[in-house]
Amino acid sequence: MLLTLATVAVLGFFAIRLAGAARFTLFGPGRARALAIWRGIGRRHLWPVPFVLAAVLGAALVLVRLPVLSFGWWSAIGGVGNPVAGSTEQTVGTALEWLIPIVFLLLLLPSLPLFALREEELFRLGAEGWSWPRRVAKTVAFGLVHVVIGIPIGVALALSIGGAYFLACYLRGWRATGSDRAAVLESTRAHTAYNAAIVALVLAAFAALAAGL
Q1: What is the pLDDT, as a whole number, of residue 120?
Q2: How far apart are CA 139 and CA 121, in angstroms?
Q3: Which tens digit of pLDDT belongs to each residue from 67-94?
Q4: How do the domains of the chain map onto residue ranges?
Q5: Could you say which of 55, 155, 162, 186 would form a disulfide bridge with 60 (CB–CB 3.0 to 4.6 Å)?
Q6: Is 79 helix (H, G, I), strand (E, B) or coil?
């Protein structure tokens, strides 16, 4: 009972945050910035995504085999996967198993560019002036920060591979323009394309589950 209440509380928290972010993006000050990011996504941001996703997934499958790296607080209280997707053990076998994740992911989708921009500002902005050890440390930190939202430690470490790719995009943007703001927009567009691909795949999976029920 206690674990059920905990998962409901977490889902309620994320639902409120996602709804607020969607409103800010669709009807508030974030609209223009999000549209500019979406519209700037091109082929160079799209074609690497399957390869980066495959590398992240492969690393995650290996790392979570280690007991210490398989822990995530969301799964420990009865959640499944990422709490942003809204899936729990309590909803398995019911319509809520696919309904809640689809609603959560649809709320998340509009705000993907702004979430990506914030992460790029935190973990990539200014990287042109960093030493390589600092770049590596920030890239690993980018992955591990996802532990905070309940992702298993091994999966979070695997996400550092994505962080390395975004860093490469940032440095490419810096070399092309000499501007850190232009560089962070370049990595943000790559990050947004990557996240959008994940959301699309997960949405398709839950839609297929819904069709089968």
Answers
A1: 98
A2: 13
A3: 899 998 888 877 776 777 767 777 777 7
A4: 2-212
A5: 155
A6: strand
Q: Which residues contact 109 (CB under 8 A, 6 or more apart)?
A: 196, 199
More confidently predicted of 50 and 213: 50
Which residues, other chains included, contact 120 with Cβ-Cβ below 8 Å and sequence gap of 6+? 166, 170, 184, 187, 188, 191
d(C-alpha 190, C-alpha 37), whole Å: 10
- Amino acid identity for residue 84 in this structure: V
Largest separation between any pair of C-alpha atoms in the chain: 56
Residue 60 tokens read as 């995650």
| Structure-block tokens of residue 150 | 């309940």
SS3 state of residue 190:
helix
Residue 3 pLDDT = 53
Separation of alpha carbons 137 and 192, rounded Å? 22
Range in 50-59, 69-78, 162-171 with the lowest mean pLDDT: 69-78
Structure-block tokens of residue 46? 């799209």
